[in-house]
Amino acid sequence: MNQPQETVGNVNSAPAPSLELMGSRQFNSWLAEQRVSLAFTTYQSGKLFLIGLQPDGRLSTFERTFNRCLGLWGDGQTLWMTSLYQLWRFENALEPGQVANGYDRVYVPQVGYVTGDLDIHDVSVDADGRPVFVNTLFGCLATTSERHSFTPLWQPPFLTKLAAEDRCHLNGLAMENGRPAYVTCVSQSNVADGWRERRRDGGCVVDVRTNEVIVTGLSMPHSPRLYRDQLWLLNSGTGYFGRVDRKTGQFEPLVFCPGYMRGLSFIGDYAVIGLSQCRENRTFQGLTLDDNLKKNDAEAHCGLCVIDLRTGDLVHWLWLNGVVRELYDVIVLPGVQRPSALGFKTDEIRRTITIGN
After folding, report:
1. Does 204 reside within a domain?
2. What is the mean pLDDT of each successive set of 10 residues along the chain, which is 357 residues long?
3. Residue 98, domain member (yes or no)
4. DSSP characters for 230-257?
5. β-strand 339-341 against 105-114: which pairing, if any?
6. Is residue 21, in this structure, part of any structural domain at all?
7. How many degrees, rounded to 5, is the angle at CA 130 between CA 129 and CA 131?
């Protein structure tokens, strides 16, 4: 049976939005066995969540508020996160083995780039330590600039100009050897907001290095990732997670997940996927996902699911019930037991000072 883990929200006499996290029986044990924590974003609620374990094995849930936070990248020490009009780099303020208030990571927002509202989705870091992000509004890959909102790096071959029109809804980025390798787009549209009419079957994967469209016929694909020499992605409009045969250009589904998928990360033999409800949003209506949910007699969940890559089984999950109904990105934080972060809503950031060597 499921175990309620922790409720996040204001506790007072007046009714307030609340959130309950409900985990599968072995979810906590899986975190301990893999020696990882998880981070995920929810952009409508504007929250960064950090999930780890308390010393007694209970779930630790930590949240901070950032307006429209979407993409995440992390390696355990450094954390990058996109937000409404800024790109943030967090650094862990603790030394190895140090603990502060029971937390073994304290992520401090160290650098913020003001980009303007570019609708930035996925973000990663290249071999030179430079952030590379998906500039969805302009339909390109970009990096930061010391003088400008962004510096464009690449755009799909089917876009004829760099325009703030969200033509194809470029959203996902896969890196290989520290360089951009593949992206996902909801369509190959070359007109303003044209992707919305192609949500059901217009999705594609583009090889950034060759400008070749290698996969077509997808439904709102997200989160392409290269792992163990295979290209994985979320065919979100259908509910299927799977991999791409890069020789044939065919998407090979592995497992159906009960929700609208966004966010994909790996550890060992497992994939961690973010799920959203989003049933009230017109963008997500009329998709094959609805039919597949009915076919499986299932309701869409909001939360995280853990997939065993060897069997395709959904082996662990963490469902969110309450005010949060959608997620965007999720990342694994290797070697982290109980993470925390600083934000701008409290005075802690004033009192947290570190000195470089």
Report:
1. yes
2. 39 62 97 98 95 97 97 97 98 95 97 98 98 98 98 98 98 98 98 96 98 97 98 98 95 98 98 86 80 95 98 98 94 98 91 87
3. yes
4. EEEEEETTTTEEEEEETTTTEEEEEEE-
5. parallel
6. no
7. 120
Q: Report how many domains make up the chain.
A: 1
Q: Both tokens of residue 25?
A: 């029986």
Query: Is 310 buried (19+), middle (13-18) or exposed (0-12) by CB count in 10 A?
Result: exposed
| Cα–Cα dist 349/210, whole Å | 45
Owning domain of residue 193: 31-343
| DSSP, res 329 | -
pTM higher than the cut 0.85: yes
Provide the token pair at 130.
């430079």
Sign (positive or negative) of CA dihedral 55, 60, 65, 68: positive
Contacts of 70 (CB under 8 A, 6+ apart): 41, 43, 81, 82, 83, 120, 121, 328, 329
Here the CATH number for the domain that contains residue 295 is 2.120.10.30
Structure-block tokens of residue 247: 């020789």
Instruction: Look up residue 28 and give its two tokens.
Output: 């906590």
Convert 47-104 into a string of H (helix), E (strand) and C (coil). EEEEEEECCCCCEEEEEEECCCCCCEEECCCEEEEECCCEEEEEEECCCCCCCECCEC
Alpha helices in the chain (DSSP H): 27-34, 288-295, 348-351
Rounded CA separation 303/319 (Å): 4
Amino acid identity of residue 168, one-letter, is C
Q: Would you give the DSSP letter of residue 195?
A: G
17 within a domain of the structure (yes/no): no
Structure tokens at 68: 């429209």
Cβ atoms < 10 Å from Cβ of 148: 11
β-sheet bridge partners, residue 270:
267, 308
